[in-house]
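Appendix B. Chain record.
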Amino acid sequence: MSSAEKERYLQLVENLRAMPLETEWLEFKENNSNPQEIGEYISALSNSAAILQREKAYFLWGIDDKTHEIVGTKFSPKQEKKGNQELENWLLGLLKPRIDFEFIEVDTEKGKVVIMEVMAAFNKPIAFGGEEYIRIGSYKKKLKDFPEKERKLWLSFEQKPYELRVAMENITASEVTELLDCAAYYTLMQLPLPSNRESMMHNMEDEQFIRKMDNGNYEITNMGALLFAKNINVFQHLKRKAVRVIKYKGNGRTNAIREQVFTKGYAIQFEDVTDYIMSLLPQEEEIDGGRRIEHVMFPRKAIREMLGNIIIHQDLMQRGSGPMMEVFDSKVEASNPGALLVPIDRIIDTAPHSRNETMASFLRIIRICEERGSGFDRIEEGMRDLLIPAPKVETGEDFARTKLYWYAGLNEWSKEERIRTCYIATCYNYVNEIPVANVVLRQRFGVDEKNKAIVSRIIKETMEAGLIKLFDEGAAPKLRRYVPYWA
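Structure tokens predicted for this chain:
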């Protein structure tokens, strides 16, 4: 153990001894080395810590449980055995599900203290030897005998989102500023930079980017790392959550010609990622009066919203994958781990749902994503302005994907793309209280009045697909209005 680590644990001992009483997440003993008792305490402390929304619970040997004075202990966990097994391995084998715990031996001026750090239960109660335990005050009890505590425990698993769990712990305030770009927070929030580090740490705590630990040091939350890391790769379990951008030659994935991984936090690198994607987009050439004019083939607002969506709607608990943007010759795809949380055909009108609501809320404050809706309506606005098909959304058990396609003219669109665009345009106008008639849809498709029969046919096909319906059944053809099937 390094001198810095020893100092941290000595400070932890002092902070825990200063507690007026034992709590549901803290137990003091002198020499109790009964393996069965220790296993039961691991279960009880872990489950109680989860209920109280704590990251850890503690069991300390060498402390008088009444006076909290250091008395020293003869307990040496590394020397203890149960049968032929080392104590730690024996305990692990009887814990279901297995939970992280660690024994730390610290020599103090008054004698040896052993600390057992126990991680809080994660997504189900921790059992030891097939029995689940809980703390009632300073007493260890069987969980099944306290149904109200059991209900609170299960409820706690829904209350601690992944974004607020620990990415890194036991770091000093100066190390926080080395790992996180705290100054960028004040720039994005349009606030003056504090004159001292203490004020900065206070602001970071308020935003839940960091938390103060029991030993006086800090832990960085997953949200703090994902939004403001100077290098996400430093946080080992978050490495795959960095945004990847891949450029392909053609419209298939067989020839990737460029790949970039953006390893800074989402908040501080969002505009840079957007700019980079825009630089990769193909250009449309137009001859105007002898002059060659180039237009980007996809709107920035659509790209920006797609990027924001894959960040805030990703399932952070899925390992091995993260948000990704792929650029082809005439299409763009944005994908993220985690199934879509709303039905695809209700993506325009349904109230926003996010797996990472705390992170999404902050990104709304700094205007990286929209307060209303999923941003899908803004994507449709951009596609409408360029007279290209409405975005296509796909989802499965563990992914969601949005696709944008570019075509030179309506004659290149597939029947499915025409029907989808007619439906999405009708939904968009309906939620914005714009009556949808043939003329409105002609504008969406870029069709002149003389060719309105083309749009009439698209409307008919969309109605046959069951996606839109007449608003006024008895109206004359010229006065007909259309609404989504669910209106």
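Further analysis of this model is presented in Appendix C.
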